[in-house]
Amino acid sequence: MLNERSLSVTQECGDCPIRHRAVCARCEADELVKLDEIKYYRRFEAGQTVIWSGDRMDFVGSVVSGIATLTQTMEDGRTQMVGLLLPSDFVGRPGRSAAAYDVVATTDLVMCCFRKAPFEDMMATTPHIAQRLLEMTLDELDAAREWMLVLGRKTAREKIASLLSIIARRDATLHLQHADRTEGALVFDLPLTREAMADYLGLTLETVSRQISALKKDGVILLEGKRHVTIPDMARLMEEAGDDADGGVFA
Questions:
Q1: pLDDT, tens digit, for every residue of 91-111?
Q2: What is the pTM of this model?
Q3: Backbone dihedral angles phi then psi of residue 42, each to the nearest 5 degrees
């Protein structure tokens, strides 16, 4: 179930910042009307748990703004961050009754949620939704495979560069900027603390800080404070990540 401390919020579909990337991206006006009948928005504060692994999940939905983590806990209590949920990412799995992971808001988070049973019914009768969800699932699979490479074979510097490129390119896509994704400066606010980056990448906090400082010193990134990042040359960042212009772990 959704955390009871979550706060209600309202938003119109026409003003939705993820409309062009969400599960409803290809829906016609009449289909949006049907979705509107089963949706509701929820806001979560940074650090708040959206749902615990194993809990009954009676909703699915999309991240509208903010960022969340997917975490799995082992039997001995050790935890591992296994994924990030960025704006437009889909939460939940139709046909599965329980949550597979803990979902925790890393920053203040807004989600567009759909009641699970009627959403599953709509998938069966609305090809636009089923097709878009399939595309998003395949993108997620590709990203997961690429992330295995990041964690298993890349150096610490390449890991940091890869994560920065993911966030930068997603932010640009959401704002309909730089369709080429490799040319021109990109500016964004880093939504993760360095501690969270270290956890996700399997690095120490000291290593993360050292590598970010090195990327800044070499002019690969510009930093204002700890969170405001400018990437002057995306192609160079991709080279630092060990990816060519068409590669990377972006989805």
A1: 998 888 899 899 999 889 999
A2: 0.78
A3: -135, 145
